[in-house]
Fold these 3 entries.
Entry 1:
Amino acid sequence: FLYFNFNFSSIFVIVIPFFLYNNIIIIKDFNFESYKTKNYLLMLKNLFLLDLKTLFIIPKFEKNIILSSRNIFNAKVAVLNKINTYDIMSSNKLLISENSLNEINKLFFKC
């Protein structure tokens, strides 16, 4: 029996089309050693996402990732508990870390 958490139901409904059109990328957990924009740009370049608007969802506040992305026009980083529907709807691709995916599983479905 799955229990659905209705607090996040609007976000859940909005994310479904991203799954249908393969616009979600699951990324292995990492952290940058320093907060340099070129580190984040290199990650986007390796994923072929430089020209797309991206939202990177991380499970907890990680200073180096957030500071590395703040100067990039089409990139946004959101902590899982601070995510909102506008950020999701305004992005072309969702990048989700593995730990975030596990946390989403815990939030949405409780066995």
Entry 2:
Amino acid sequence: VYKRQLSKALKTNGVNINASSQNQMALHIHQLEVIVKQQTLKYRSEGIIELEVKLNKGKRSFNKYYNGSQNSEGPLIFDKAKVEGQLNTLLEQMISRIVNDVELQEFLQG
């Protein structure tokens, strides 16, 4: 899912994706989780994402970490679909930050 989202976002921002290119990009997921704390009458969830982007362009390289978190609370028992949706939203926000990163764009253009 994340690979498709990242590819689409990069293409939207003018990056040409070609598997046979000597330029390489890797997205490493260091952390992607939701921690849910259930109490008697409510729950609290925390989504945590830590991604690392690695780019190689000839002899040049670019590495950068991107971190994000999101908290939510709700009444009674947590809703798995709602928590998954919040994590997906956070992942989309992280991908948007990556493709709009000025340092990354300058590296790709240089």
Entry 3:
Amino acid sequence: FPSHDSRIRLLEQTLNSLFKNTELSNINSLTVVNDNSFYDISGITKYSPVDVNLINLSKTSGVGKSKNIGVELSKYMHNGKYLYLLDGDVYFTNKWDIKMIEIYEKYKDE
């Protein structure tokens, strides 16, 4: 997910709720794209219970391009079954991932 300056507190909240409310076995790894923020966000990801790939862009690219970069790099860095794109202002509720996977698996062939 992309990250930029004004969103640093929301990013912390997003990661805290992600790790608190997700079955960690469902997370192979996490890719964070730092969209040329002047904040050092490496400290936020340092205590992650899963592998984190932090990508620091040298110029601001915007949300869409940042996500595309994250998707492309994730193809080579991860071997997970699912890819979930998120922004740094999301609050995850309990078992959100289990519910989402169940719905995906139920309707994936439709």
